[in-house]
Amino acid sequence: MVRCVAALRLFLFGLVTFAVLACASAQQISRLTLASNETFGGSTVAATVTLTSAPKTNLTVKLSSNKAFATVPASLTVLAGKTIAGFNVATKAVTSVNLATITASINSSTASADLTVFAVGVSAIKLSPTAVIGSNTVAATVTLTKAAPTGGVVVRFLSDNAAATAPSSISINPGSTTGTVTIQTKAVATIQSATLTATGGGKSATASLSVTPPVAVSLTLLSASLTGGLSTTATVKLSGPAPSV
After folding, report:
1. Which of 129, 130, 179, 184 lies closest to 152 in space, CA to CA?
2. What is the maximal distance between C-alpha atoms in the chain?
């Protein structure tokens, strides 16, 4: 868009000596660029506004976001003689994937960019050990995709086999990337396989646990020798508690 202003200069006698037609291009936004179009809630993303030409004086560009979880300053200033200015988009923790549109405008000239904000969620669950004799405990460590934001991240657990029970949930503190819970197993008569699922931030991870029955580890006789026809007591020691019958 081109704006022109005509200026006339007159002699005292009312005669026109010359006419000047001054034309100046109205400033327009060339583009709005985000350093990354994807981020996790609680992070900050750098953004840049580029003009089609450098203004002769400082120019104010209005900024806006259509979602509350992604905030921007009300405006930024492009300095005289410059075509680029930067600002930051601050995001808040979300519980699911969300999309925000960031817009920069000068009068009728606008430019936008989309920002996808992901929830900080579960990326993995690791068991130690992965096989255990029933009635023993197992440590389950959950790893997040990124450090937990303000408010922490709640991770819920589920086991598909009663032979291994997990707490219903755990809260991972802000700034932490891992959290550990204890899995309690029960005595079993046959080998049992349990799948443990950890869910948080819209993401899930699973790990398999093998729960085995106890085995005999020793046999002790009350009498090592005796006369034929007599009896003695034999004691068997198991590697773990025997399951209920």
Report:
1. 179
2. 151
How does pLDDT run across 57-108, given as a tens digit for each residue? 999 999 999 999 999 999 999 999 999 999 999 999 888 889 999 999 998 9
In this structure, the number of other CB atoms found within 10 A of the CB of residue 44 comes to 11
Give the separation between CA 73 and CA 155, rounded to whole angstroms: 33
pTM of the complete model beyond 0.85: no
- As given in the structure block, the two tokens for residue 71 are 């905030």
Residue with tokens 């709005």: 32
The Cα 154–Cα 57 span in angstroms is 51
DSSP assignment of 116-169: EEEPP-EEEEEEESSEEETT-EEEEEEEESS---TT-EEEEEEESSTTEE--SE
Q: How far, in whole angstroms, is CA 76 from its chain's centroid?
A: 29
* Dihedral angle over CA of 142, 145, 149, 155, nearest 10: -30
Asked if the peptide bond before residue 129 counts as cis, ω within 30 degrees of 0, the response is yes
Following CA atoms 53, 59, 65, 71 in sequence, which dihedral angle do they give, to the nearest 10 degrees? 120
Closest among 128, 183, 123, 110 to 153, alpha carbons compared: 123
Structure tokens at 90: 């601050």
Q: Are 122 and 155 in contact (CB under 8 A)?
A: yes
